[in-house]
Amino acid sequence: MSSWLWKAGLAGAALVAATVYAAAQMSGHPEMQGHMSPGGANQSVASPQGGEPGQMHARMRQMMQGGMMPGGMHGEMHHHGMMGMQGGLNDQPTMPGQDAFGAIQEVVQILDSDPTTDWSKVNIAALREHLIDMNEVTLHAAATEQPLANGIEIAVTGEGRTALAIKRMVPAHVSELGKIGWNAKTEDLPNGVKLTVTSDDPKLATKLKALGFMGIMVQGGHHQPHHLMIAKGEFHTH
Length: 238
Ligand SMILES: [Cu+2]
Description:
Layout: H1 3-26, H2 43-46, H3 53-66, H4 72-86, H5 99-113, H6 124-140, E1 142-148, E2 151-157, H7 160-179, E3 183-189, E4 192-198, H8 202-217, H9 223-231
Antiparallel strand pairs: 1-2, 2-4, 3-4
Helix pairs in contact: 1-3, 6-7, 6-9
This protein binds copper (II) ion.
C-alpha cells in the first residue's frame, strides 16, 4: 500500500502523517501517538520497511508536539527499537545523562501516568537525597574487607556526607538481608559501620567473600520498589 506514498513525495507523506497525527489527537487516545506510522497503526505490521521519509516526519512531529506527554517515553522507546535497527539519521538518544537523573525521570513518569497519584504527598526531594546516599555508598565509601572462616567482615567508612549515607543505608540493608535468610549485622564505627555477614553453609560463606561489600549491598532488589515508595511519600527510612 505504500508505493503511492513514495511517489507522492515528501510533502504528501508529511501531510498524511500530520492528518493521522491530528486524528490520533482527536480520538482521545494520546497513547496511540507513540505507535503511529504515517499510513496508520497497522502499516508497520503489514509493511515493515518503515524507513520512509513520511515516518521520519511523523516521528519529528511527535517529538515536537507530544514529546513530553505522559507515557510518551514508552512510545519513544518503541520507535527507538524499530528505528535503531534501521540506523535512522533523525533517531533521538534515550540516555537521560546521569543514572540518578534517569531513575528520577522514570519515577516521575510512573507517578504522572498513575491517576491515583496523590501529589499532596509526593516527595521527589526525598528520593533525590536517597539517590545521593546511594552514590556516596557506591562510589565514595571505603570498604576494608576481612575474610572470616564463615563469611566476611567489612569496615565501611567515609567522611562527612559519605559517613552519614553509610550509617543510613548499610544498617537498613541488614534487615533486607534478613528477609532473604542471610545472617547479617552492623556495629557503629565513628565514621561508618562494621558489616558482618556469615553463613553455616560453606558454599554461601565462600560466595560472601567473593561478593564483598558491594556484591552484598546489591542483594534483594528492593531499591526499585522502595524508590517509588520514597517518591510517593510512603517510606521514610531506607
Ligand atoms: Cu535505593
